[in-house]
Amino acid sequence: MRxxxxxxxxxxxxxxxLLVPQRLRAANVxxxxxxxxxxxxxxxxxxxxxxxxxxxxxxxEDKLDAYLQTIRKTPPDExxxxxxxxxxxxxxxxxxxxxxxxxxxxxxTSMNEIKVKTLKGSKSAWEAPSVTVGTRQYSLNQxxxxxxxxxxxDPRVHFALVCAAETCPPLLNEAYDGARLNQQLxxxxxxxxxxxxxxxxxxxxxxxxxxxxxxSAEFGEGNALIAWLNRYATVKIAPTAKVDFLPFDWALxxxxxxxxxxxxx
Length: 265
Fold this sequence. Notes:
This protein has helices spanning 6-19, 22-26, 31-34, 36-45, 54-59, 61-73, 83-105, 140-152, 181-193, 210-214, 216-219, 223-230, 255-264; strands at 115-118, 121-124, 129-133, 136-139, 200-202, 205-208, 242-245. The strands form three sheets. The protein has a three-stranded mixed beta sheet. A two-stranded antiparallel sheet has the order 1-2. The chain has a two-stranded antiparallel ribbon with strand order 3-4.
C-alpha cells in the first residue's frame, strides 16, 4: 500500500476544505467576528446621540462594501447559530444596508428622496433590492417585514432599526451582538422612549413617536400600550393618561445637518 507524502496530505486537506459548504464554514464564525468591521465603523462614525457622519462614512465606503460582501458570503446558519445571533445578524445587515443606500445618493436631505432605477422604472429606497444574503436579494422592507418582524416577533426591533431620519430611533454606535442582544435592545428601548426629541412623557399625558402608532399591532393600544411603555419609561404613566402622537421628521439624520442647526441657535 502506497502512503501519501506529507505534501499530498496537505493538498488533500486544502481541497476538502474548499468543498465544505459555505454555510458550514459560516457556522464556525462567531457573531462578534462577523460584524467586527461594522462595529468599528459605527464606533467611528456615529455620534453619542445617534446621528450619522455620512461624509466620514464615504471615506470608509470600501470597508462598508467589504463588510456587505462578507455578509453575502455568510448567510445565517439556522441550525448552528442561536436565535439571538440570527436576530443580531439581520439587525446589523439592515442598518449597514441603509447607510450604504444613503451613501450611494449622498448628499440627500431625506431617505424618501432616493429613487433606485430598475428595469421597469424606479423603486423607493425601502422597496429596491439593497443587499444580497447568500443567493437572495433583499429590500429593506423585506428584511424588516419578512424576517425581523415575522420570525422574531420582538417589538424592540423598531428601536434598533435605523430609517435614516431625524426622529427615527438613534443608531447604536456598536454592532448588535447575539451574546448581549437582550440588554442592547432593552437599552435602546429606554433610550428612545425617554429622550424628549422622540417622546414626551408625563404621568397624565404622553406624546409619542409615530412609531408607536404605525406599529400599534405590536405595541398595543390603550391600557396595553401604557403597560408596555411603563416597562421602560422613567416616568410612571397612569393607565388613564391621554395619548397623542408626534409628527415624524423624515429629514436625514446627518451629523453635518445637526451641526448646522446647532450653529444657527
